[in-house]
Design goal:
eight-stranded mixed β-sheet, binds flavin-adenine dinucleotide, 442 residues, 27% strand
């Protein structure tokens, strides 16, 4: 009979769970770790390159980050850059390209100039670009412009990542550790309960339902992590708004990433354009922001699960009201519904894309079917507001729940270090945190 007891079980083999198994396998004294995923391959949900924007967020082109937040995100995401560049198959994980954040019209040009002044010292590789500099890097962005433009950007940076390949690399490396590291695909966790000092997980496996046991359980299951948290008595003060992001494809029109200025009232990325790193010759535009009552994109069986975790009460409603009472947010939500309508969506969406490439026509765009995942945005019911970024519930009782909208993939190693710290402290195991950090520095 197989031993189904592990010191640590990680549920979810996306980039969050796989970064953690890598850190625990390589830098801790924990001897037995399993990572379970319900699908037949690693990283099939939001970490798959089809589902996200493939951007290593460094805080330099995301205008809704303050300088302080941008500095934090830079440090966190640079670990992914350094890790990736050290791999033999680095060319399959991380890609260099130009990147810029573009201001269009006088008000945005002024905002770009101000931001550059503020960020110049900390992000000295980012230059203030005028229309001629922009034309040199991205001719189609500067061509046929009626309004003034300026950008903050750089000609080359390792800023595009295939997060699916990154997850596969973490898992391959964790398997080389001389300890019990098991990767169990087609293993769906159905329920979890505490039994004495350990946890019992009921798991649907290819050979039937079995019980697994662990001293510590980490849920890195995207939106589902909040469901598991609530079932185990945590995260009661959180509600969930799931925001899908669709993309449109165009032919090769951009050389690198072109971001636009974000509406700082919104936790979603503004539309950007960039070459798809997995599909030669295609430029991707997006993501849109479509509110959907689902926990995983394109999986209809996750609708019912959404309503179980939604947590709609007067506090959540107040948080949502704060959002929709803003006229520009209301119109943004409506517009994003319209972008999904066949034919009409393309005609409307092209206006967003024309901010990046003025000469593009709607018939040059095609909905990217099957692309774009779902961002699980947390509603903080105590504060009655929508939270920006990820949520991590690190309990004192041998459980962690990671809920990971953007920039979750970029910060996976940083969060993995915090998870590993908590796990090793709880299990009284050793964790060579400084060794891990050193290995992730430039
Ligand atoms: C449109 C869009 C654009 C984005 N762009 C970026 C970007 O450019 N840069 C960036 O850093 N981030 C981006 N993000 C966010 C990023 O994709 C996520 O933060 C990241 O992929 C989350 O990884 P994860 O491992 O936490 O979750 P996931 O990759 O979703 O993995 C969760 C795993 O849990 C498994 N699972 C779920 N339930 C169970 C169960 N019961 N039993 C077993 N396994 C289970 C799933 O099968 C899945 O493999 C974007 C997201 C979206 C939607």
């Amino acid at each position: 009979m197989q031993n189904r007891h592990y010191q640590v079980i990680i549920v979810g083999s996306g980039v969050t769970g796989s970064a953690l198994i890598y850190l625990l396998a390589k830098f801790s004294s924990i001897e037995s770790i399993a990572i379970l995923d319900k699908y037949d391959a690693i990283a099939k949900v939001n970490s798959d390159a089809k589902y996200n924007s493939q951007t290593l967020h460094s805080g330099d082109i995301e205008t809704n980050y303050s300088l302080e937040k941008a500095q934090e995100v830079y440090q966190a995401s640079d670990m992914v850059r350094q890790y990736s560049l050290r791999q033999e198959n680095a060319k399959e994980i991380i890609f260099p390209s130009s990147k810029m954040v573009l201001g269009v019209g006088e008000a945005e040009v002024e905002a770009i100039e101000k931001r550059h002044k503020l960020f110049a010292k900390s992000f000295n590789y980012m230059q203030l670009l005028d229309d001629k500099d922009i034309a040199e890097i991205e001719p189609n962005v500067a061509k046929n412009r009626q309004q003034p433009i300026k950008a903050i950007g750089t000609k080359s940076d390792y800023c595009a990542v295939d997060f699916g390949n990154l997850a596969r690399s973490f898992i391959a490396n964790s398997k080389t550790a001389k300890k019990r590291v098991e990767v169990l695909l087609k293993h769906k966790v159905l329920a979890t309960k505490r039994t004495g000092n350990t946890y019992q997980l009921r798991v649907k496996t290819p050979t039937g339902v079995q019980n697994f046991h662990a001293d510590f359980v980490v849920f890195s299951t995207g939106a589902y992590s909040l469901t598991y948290a609530k079932n185990l008595g945590y995260g009661k003060n959180y509600g969930l708004l799931c925001v899908a992001g669709s993309f449109y494809f165009g032919k090769k029109t951009l050389n690198g990433k072109v971001y636009t200025i974000q509406n700082d009232k919104l936790p979603f990325a503004a539309v950007h354009g960039d070459p798809d790193i997995c599909l030669e010759g295609r430029t991707r535009f997006g993501p849109t922001a479509l509110i959907l009552p689902q926990l995983e994109r394109y999986r209809h069986d996750t609708y019912a699960d959404y309503f179980k975790v939604l947590g709609l009460d007067s506090h959540a409603l107040k948080a949502l009201w704060k959002l929709v009472k803003e006229p520009d947010i209301r119109s943004y939500i409506m517009r994003n519904f319209a972008y999904e309508i066949p034919y009409i969506g393309r005609k409307l969406f092209v206006k967003e894309v024309q901010k990046i490439i003025p000469s593009i026509r709607s018939n040059e765009l095609k909905a990217a079917k099957g692309f774009g995942g779902l961002r699980p945005q947390i509603i903080d019911k105590d504060k009655e507001q929508l939270m920006l970024g990820e949520a991590h519930i690190r309990t004192q009782e041998g459980l962690i729940f990671n809920i990971t909208p953007s920039p979750g993939a970029s910060t996976c190693l940083h969060q993995g270090l915090a998870d590993a710290d908590r796990i090793c402290e709880y299990l009284q195991a050793d964790f060579d945190k400084s060794g891990a950090q050193k290995s992730l520095q430039s």
